[in-house]
Amino acid sequence: MNTLTDKVAIVTGASSGIGRATALLFAEEGAAVVVSARRQDELDEVVAKIQAAGRRAVAVAGDVRDDSLARSLVDVAVRTFGGLDIAFNNAGSADPMAPVGDLSLDGWREVIDTNLSGAFLGAKHQTPAVVERGGGSLIFTSSFVGVSVGMPGMAAYAASKAGLIGLTQVLAVELGAQGVRVNAVLPGGTDTPSNIVNAPGVAPEVRAFVEGLHALKRLAKPEEIAQSVLYLASDASSFVTGTALVVDGGLSISRT
């Protein structure tokens, strides 16, 4: 039996990268998946891929900063698939990036609202539905940035990702008695379209430098991070809650 048979999951930021890989893996493992991101065409491609494999999925495009989207995702999960067991609040952004002295208040708010407030809104609406199912798993995508490493120009991103760990811990305590586990995953450098190493015109030396920061001397594949998210979503982690699961290829401990 697949690990998520008869489960229903929401995945945000599912149009590419870690979110896309996780949505595909969840579906492969038996879950019905509600995928969300801002780009409808990319979401439709993910849904088509899942359905072609004989699995169930539906797309809801929108911005995680909108309370109405968070509410809608839960409504769709319940109406279409009968409930909600798992939510991977993964959508995030690092832009704009600038030294603190040059970062505008609007720029700060854009990152905080997307990464931290978006996760709060998701959890706020997801929690009652998961509790109604008798328990389940909420998962957030945090980062090594702001937790074990400070990187220039990333103050808003670091603050938002560190804040997610605090949110994770409080929710874990608030919801544990109701059977809801809450955890965060902290990926290292991952080979996604949004990674700076894949930006147009970036020199090969940049990729080599970023890979060298990791003890494993490479970037993660999105599918590798997805496997860790699957662990947190599944009964394999049935006694794990309130954790910040570091999946960073040794970046946080490497000094070579």
Describe this structure in words.
- The protein is an alpha/beta fold.
- It has one domain (about 10-245): 3-Layer(aba) Sandwich (Rossmann fold).
- Helix content is about 45%, strand content about 15%.
- It has helices at about 15-30, 40-50, 65-80, 105-130, 155-175, 205-210, 220-235, and strands spanning about 10, 30-35, 55-60, 85-90, 135-140, 180-185, 245.
- A seven-stranded parallel beta sheet has the order 3-2-1-4-5-6-7, with helices on both faces.
- Helix 5 (about 155-175) links the parallel strand 5 (about 135-140) and strand 6 (about 180-185).
- It is globular.
- It starts with 7 loop residues before the first strand and ends in a 9-residue tail after the last strand.
What are the salient characteristics of this protein?
256 residues; alpha/beta; seven-stranded parallel beta sheet; 15% strand; globular
Quick one: CATH class? Alpha Beta
The overall number of domains is 1
In angstroms, what is the radius of gyration?
17 Å
End-to-end span in angstroms?
43 Å
SS class: alpha/beta
Strand portion: 5-15%
Q: Order of strands across the widest beta sheet?
A: 3-2-1-4-5-6-7
Question: What's the helix and strand layout?
Answer:
Elements: E1 8-12, H1 17-28, E2 32-37, H2 40-52, E3 57-61, H3 67-81, E4 86-89, H4 105-132, E5 136-141, H5 155-175, E6 180-187, H6 204-212, H7 222-233, E7 244-247
Parallel strand pairs: 1-2, 1-4, 2-3, 4-5, 5-6, 6-7
Helix pairs in contact: 1-7, 3-4, 4-5
Offer a quick outline of the entry.
The chain is α/β, with parallel strands linked by helices and 256 residues long. The protein is 43% helix and 15% strand.
